[in-house]
Every structure is written in C-alpha cells, then in structure tokens.
Amino acid sequence: MNHLLPALRVQGLTFGYPHRPVFENFEARLLPGPNLVRGDESTGKTTLLRLLAGDLVPQAGNLVLELPGRPPAAAPFRNHVAWFDPRSDALEGQTPRDWYGRLPQSQAAWDAAALQGHVQGFMLEPHLDKPFGALSTGTRRKVLMAGAFACAAPLTLIDEPVAGLDKASVAYLALALKQLAMCTDRMVVVAHYEALAGVPWAQVVDLPGA
C-alpha cells in the first residue's frame, strides 16, 4: 500500500519498567510537520521517543511508519529516524564540528545548508570547537537539535527542547518548528510539558496522566 504523506501510527502500545507501568494499550497518530507529545514529569514523554527511536522495544502493540511509495514499516525504523538523546554521554570528548562532519555518513537526507542556518540561528559558532563535555546544558541541546533538524530524516525526535535555553534560542526554536510545519515529507516529534508559542502543531498528543 502506498501513502501520499508520511504518518506514524502507535497501535495498542504497552510498555513499562519493573514496578512502573508507562503505557497500556496506548493509541496515537502522528502527522507531517511538528507534533507535540505533551505530559507532566514521569508520564512517559522520553520513553515514547526512545520507543520510536528503537532504543526500547514495546511489550505489546505496534509502531508503524508509513512513507510515500513504501509499504508500512514496523519499528525499529533504522535509517528513517534522527534521534540524539540529550542525556547520553556518547559524544563526550568530541566537538560539535567533528560530530557534524560525520553525520552525513549515516544520514541520507543530510542538508548542509540547513545545518549552517540552524548553527547561526542557535548562535553556536563560538562553541563548535569545544568538547561536548564543556558545553552547558542549553548549548548541548542546541547543538543536538541543529544536527537533528539538518538530518532531514522522515522522523525527527526532540526531547524537552527548551531545557537551559535562553529566550532568543527559544524564539529561534519556535521559528524553526514553524518552518517545518510547511514540510509534507517530514514528521518532527517534540516531547515537552507544554506547547511552544507560535508553533502550528500538526498534532498534539496528551499522554495518559497528563
């Protein structure tokens, strides 16, 4: 079956940690453009992103990615996802410039011009040659978001984007998401506790307990 626009279906998702259930028969549908996954602390926002990224495996249910001209694919989605966990220490010792230089090798839709625009928008030039371990929380997140947006993957996952960001960077983030609202070939899933002003969300998914 072919699809004119991408979509991601969460069907009967069940997942939990020992002694802490998170999702039980959860359903959602994500659409092209920016999608907001909204919920309070410990409602499963990051867990859902990790399930979509393939870091975690559902205990029941299905995650199905529908892309134009392709049959529906079940998770993990392999080369169709851009996900850089801001809590990971995998990049310690590297610099943003070096990391950006390697991303095109694993991202088929890499957009170098978009990266330059996001680097400027997030005011990252002074930090490109610093090791990740020396970056502040906000700068680290901006580096990861700039890279994720430039990957231009069909599915881009962004976790708690405004943590540590200054007002100017929050405003640029909202602008970048607003521009992505015009894209019909990409889904951006943002996990956050509230909507960002000025962003025309394609879909808002309120998690159980939110």
Automatic annotation (TrEMBL):
It holds the Pfam family ABC_tran. Coiled coil: none annotated. Gene3D superfamilies: P-loop containing nucleotide triphosphate hydrolases. The keyword Ribosomal protein does not apply. Residues 39-163 form the ABC transporter domain. It comes from the Bacteria. Keywords: ATP-binding, Nucleotide-binding, Transport. PANTHER family: HEAVY METAL TRANSPORTER. This is ABC transporter related protein. It comes from Acidovorax delafieldii 2AN. The lineage of its organism: Bacteria, Pseudomonadati, Pseudomonadota, Betaproteobacteria, Burkholderiales.
